[in-house]
Write a structure and sequence with these properties.
The protein has about 375 residues and is mainly α. It is about 50% helix and about 5% strand.
Length: about 375
Amino acid sequence: MRGSSKTPPKYRKHKKSGQAVVTLSGRDFYLGTYGSKASKSEYDRLVSQWLVNGRVLTEAAEQKPKTVKDLIAAYWTFAKGFYVKNGKPTDELPGLKMALKHLKTTYGGLTVGEFGPLMLIAYQQQLVETGICRRYVNQQTGRIKRMFKWGVSRELVPVAVHQALATVSGLRKGKTAAKDFAPVKAVSDDVVDETLKHVVYEPTKAMIQFQRLVGCRPGELFILRPMDIDRTGGGHKGVWLYWPESHKTEHHGKSRVIVIGPRAQAILAPYLLKDETEFCFVRRCGSPFERRHYIQHIHRACLKAFPAPEGTVGEELKAWEKTHTWAPNRLRHSTATDIRKNHGLEAAQIVAGHANARTTEIYAERDLTKAAEVMAKVG
């Protein structure tokens, strides 16, 4: 009988998965690729703990997820606490939720050790067949890899399992049936001007005009407060400086400053006449803007500015609306495109916040000077 004699439980091969396995107190523990050094080390560790504990599973071993479904539940609990910024869930959570849901539906019943590279490749292909783009397939696959990596760090997953999954490459452009969406394009000034005629809410109109001039991200608009604006320009003549409290690349250790020229200053000025800690742009109800609110306001105005021909219904109507609406990120592309054309690639990268990370304050100051020179003219 396994585990009842004085001899240690046997190191065995699980034929279906190719994993090494050992049975302790009636439970199977998958150790990684059969015959590998890592799997044998994991075997030694578990068996040693089991023997020292009087041939009884330790509390840590009892808590280890048995199945992929168990691992998903443990990781989701962690993710809900980790992917939070300024007290709110980040945009990572919806995508992660979808990735885990699909994995759970197909592979949730497998043991953690049974899930290997071929299954991850099959998962990729299933996502491709749903019609989502190549980039999003790679994002979802990366999320699954990160979950198993997290599991290793918490001693919930054998290290060899994550090492094996890490060998699965992302889908390459032109080498897969997954579609690639066209890159985001700039929106023309004529289209923006026509849209603005039909924007009902004045703060939304100001946000569009301000974003078009300074090239900031939508999220940087929503958190703008009077206290975040340096109206002295930090010694740079004719401009204001906006230092967002949080921004997209802060977790990479990068700083972000948005330079506001005279035209953008005139648009922003009326919204600075409030308490220093209040958001400049808020909804009618007084609550902060979110991306979806901003997009809704723009799309409603677009549909009034560019109405579909009479009689357009069904799929044709959907196609018309998709073609004749635009998202706020396209304003950033418009700003960057114009600045690149008239002031060079480096200036466009700096203003849009795409400059390479700098290692000294000298370079940071040089970049800010260039941005100030440009925005004093065009912003």
